[in-house]
Batch of 4 targets.
Target 1
Amino acid sequence: MLDLNPAAQEVIRLVGGVADDQLTAPTPSTDTSVAALLDHLMGLALAFTWAARKSGGEGPGGSVPPPPPSGANLAPEWRTVLPARLTGLVDAWRQPDAWTGMATAGGVTMPAEVMGVVALDELVLHGWDLAKATSQPFHCDPASTEAVLAFTAESARPEQAANREGLFGPVVPVPADAPALDRALGFAGRDPGWTPPAR
């Protein structure tokens, strides 16, 4: 079992630092605004909570893939709802049963212990995206960094190309002696040195 709380708390902190005039700003994810990223976080928080509880059914937590994230769909009360959903996500994955059997999220079914790692990966990578897009510092605890690095490094193996489709962009070369988080970002198709364009 991994503890998703440190990564979730970092996202919650970052959400509190987003200004209204930053919602249209670009993020490291191509063609994704801050508002669209927040909409994605809103959806994935629910989807992975339902996955942990094995209670998704139809919809974003179950067998139906979610719609593409869109700033136009961002709920007006996101500043309060998103932290609450992230707290629920952490609580759901703190239950031992969450890590057993199979779990489904976003139309994908996989072993629950892998789904938990995917949930952590989403929190860390999109937390970093949000931090970069809004010019905030980003902190990732060592255990989360290690887990995400292992996951993204495995996804970057040539034989994983088909599974990687739609999840990560092309691998960004990062020096082998770079910090662990930078290497994880590179394997996930992100440039650790990305900065928002001048506005």
Target 2
Amino acid sequence: MTLEPISLRTVCGIEELAGHSSSKVTQVLSLLDPGTPHPRAFSGFGAHHRVTLEFHDIIEPMTGLVAPSEGDVAEILRFGADVGPKDHLLIHCHMGISRSTAAMAMLLAQAEPSLDEADVVARLYALRRQSWPNTRMIAMADDALGRGGRLVAAVRRLHARQLKARPETEAYMRAVGRTAEVEAALAA
């Protein structure tokens, strides 16, 4: 199946949602921690289709937390299959850095299967400079999209770029249980 390229796309965090209420958003993917109240900002948006998935921003199972699953990634890809070239897609998570950027990367890769993975990541970075895609989600999407590990490798290179540009990111990512991503980026 060949999908149309996504032309209007926004990635943001919860605190930024209100600033997009007049952007004529038509499709919204909300990626929330389980139990998080749905953002009130959507009451100021026009008519739109919204899908909400709930899982934590973790890259390996942790007691008491819900890890992103293959089912979540499949649902994101199903959602993306319904986004047309005239839609304005907005994807958000808590901070607009990890889950939402992983989702956007996989939807860009799905919509344009001939696009090189480095170009997918470059487009993502142009959309959201502070991107740090969740590698658990990316690995599952890479597999589902038949990208042969190339999307994972491109994201790893993005992580390495982010560590060089923002060295303070390393300590933060290690503190929140993302050491494996940091080590992979440092080895890239």
Target 3
Amino acid sequence: MTDAATDGTTEVPGSTPPPAARRGTAEPADRGRTTIADGVVAKIAGMAARDVPGVHAMGSGLARTFDTVRDRVPGGSRAATRGIRAEVGEVQTALDLEIVVEYGVSIAEVSRTVREGVVAAVERMTGLEVVEVNIDIGDVRLPDDGGDEEERPPLQ
């Protein structure tokens, strides 16, 4: 025996419901879920931070040294996420960045600009809410420091 549905259709037991009934009212874009890895958010943040004038490099001197050695091994590159730690939840993310600034720049201004750029880039690209961007100034690059030239190539 069949029961009449509220929309006037009849469903036969054991049959497949019509496509509209199977889908419910969910829009195609709302069917399923997207998971964003911590490393993806860290890369986005790293690219945004590196674009800020006054930022010389990401990570502490020790981390940069280890990464230089690791980068020489095929598949060992971590430069994109060096000095960045991201914690990603379902709808929010928090970031910790360690940066090296150029001597003579306003650290407060560079930090503010990095924070603004990172928040804008991560929120635009991922849709996650950035709840905090903590910045640790790990070093200052002095004008006569020549050891980190590979970090930022000269402008052309």
Target 4
Amino acid sequence: MAENISDYNFRFPISIRFSDIDAYGNVSNTIYLTFFEIARLNYWKDVTQWDFKKAGVILGRSEINYLKPITIDDTICCYVRTSRIGNSSFDMLYLLTRNTPDGEEICTTGKSVCISYDYDAKESVPIPENERQRMIEYDKPGLITNTH
């Protein structure tokens, strides 16, 4: 997984809620996928302008690498980028960072395999061309593997 913040164009601030915290004062490991989801949805709205009336998106798989704990006192952001685009599936990478006196520190990395999906037909469908092109243009064409 890419762990270089400079490879990411999309950054979304995440608010930590009291309910996100476990008994030890850390963000519960169950919450990280929610943080990724919040940032991913905003990426789709702001960057790809995904038209969910044409095609939905489902998750095929998610991965999380916990590097450093996050606490309720941290100010965090989630970086999101597309790293691979196939015919109907695409991969998204995530970095969760916290602000420190020395700058941003990567606390968590993640990856999701997303699938363009027709809920009525209950099957995967090709990624809509406009959304595909916006991902490629936004996330540096040289950093995306295009298997279309």
